[in-house]
Amino acid sequence: MLVACVIGAHFRIDCTSGIERWRSTQLTESSAQPPTADNIEAITISASAELDRLENLEAVDQWRVSYLGRRGMLTTVLRGLSSLEVEERRTVGALANQAKNTLEERLEERVRQINEATLTRSASQDRLDVTLPGRPALEGRLHPTTQIVREICSAFVAMGFGVVEGPEVEWDHYNFEMLNIPKGHPARDMWNTLWVDYEDPTGEQAMLLRTHTSPMQARVMENREPPIRVVVPGKCYRYEATDATHEWHFYQVEGLAVGEGITFADLKGTLYEFARRMFGEERQIRFRCDYFPFVEPGVDMSIDCFACDGDGNGCRICRDSGWIEIMGAGMIHPKVLEGVGYDTERYTGFAFGMGPERIAMLKYGIDDIRHFYSNDLRFLRQF
To answer: Is residue 238 annotated as part of the catalytic site, yes or no?
Structure first.
């Protein structure tokens, strides 16, 4: 049996060698003899029959090189057209071009058939159960601070306010001086400022990370005439210790309204409407007198504590007060209006500023502001 296999193997090798020798002989004879219609037809029939037997793309490519390549059998025949008479050359040339086109079409069709057969085999072997549930796509989401900032802005936009933004790296001129806080004023101690390592030509430190979004009051009023109604969302920075209700970097939303006949009643009505939109009718709201250099009179607005329901007994969130301050507000100081060139006899206005994180804490019952920037996915995925 082993001998028979060996003999069979030699027989196959000899047969293959014979075919190759036959091709080489045919190629040599074809190149030596002028091409004829019969010769071209024989090559076409032989090539077509061989192509039909091929089962993979690698063999098909070898077939293409053997017949249609630069040194292929049909190409060699075409090169011999120059030895024919003009009329015969025209006839045989047309047949040769037709044969070439036919073989190229057969080649394209055979490649398509092999690809389809491969795809069918693959589908049958790796059958896909279309009834299985798909893999859920991972969805991103906005940070809770971004969500609440947008919600706050939307509430004021519904009341006729526009939204503007300003630089986080600010000049001392806008952060303090234009807000009635000149150099050396004790009110500067209210903000623990982070100064930028920069000195102006006079040797003064004139650049800082803004401590609040209030500088945009002056910037907006410098470039617009009343009436003005804008809110300014943005990030602020202060050099201070962190606890459950304070962070050294935080967001703030500033509000500004300037026009004729604006009173403190307009301020209270605007903030009451904001609280109603954000927290509903059941929340208790409190205004108390407070001091801010750029407003007069100034107030702070507080909402009853969500953690203790306003009782304040041992509550670390409201520190036993029963209230959580969410914003400061007041009527714009006349000196601020004068500083931007407004007629204080004609125009009045109000301003307010709030921390979106504190608003979110109240709205969603979050007990520690530090959760917002801890990058804890267990917290972030809840929003």
So the answer is: yes
CB-based burial, 81-119: b 16+ in 10 Å, e otherwise:
eeebeeeebeebeebbeebbeebeebbeebeeebeeeee
What single letter denotes the amino acid at residue 265?
A
Active site residue 351: yes
Could you confirm whether 86 is annotated as catalytic?
A: no
**Residue in 47, 110, 232, 252 annotated catalytic:** 252
Active site residue 33: no
Q: Which of 47, 64, 164, 191 is catalytic?
A: 191
Lowest mean pLDDT among 22-26, 164-168, 189-193, 205-209: 22-26
| Domains (range + CATH), the chain | 33-120 (no CATH), 144-380 (3.30.930.10)
Residue with tokens 């009505």: 269
Among candidate residues 92, 99, 295, 329, the one labeled active-site is: 295
Return the pLDDT at 126. Answer: 66
Q: Edge-to-edge strand order for the sheet containing 169-171?
A: 169-171, 207-209, 194-195
Measured CA to CA in angstroms, residue 34 lies from 81, 85, 211 at distances of 7, 10, 95
Contact 349, 340 (CB under 8 A): no
